[in-house]
Amino acid sequence: MKKFKTASGEPPVLHRNSANLMQSMLDEVKANIAILPELKSLIPPLQPTEFEQLEANILRDGCREALLIWQTTQGVLDGSADDTPLNVLIDGHNRYAICTKHGIDFKVALREFPTLQAVRDFMIDNQLGRRNLTPEQMSYLRGLKYRNERQAAGRPTDTNDGAETVGEKQAQRTRDKLAKEFNVSPSTILRDRDYSEGLDRLEPELKQEVLKGTRKLPKEVVREIGRQGGEADAAPLTLADINALSKPSAAPVQETPKRSKLGQTGPAHPSAGVKSLIEKISQLASTLDPASSTFEADCDKLMALLKEAKKQAK
Question: How many whole angstroms separate alpha carbon 13 and alpha carbon 35?
Answer without folding.
Answer: 26
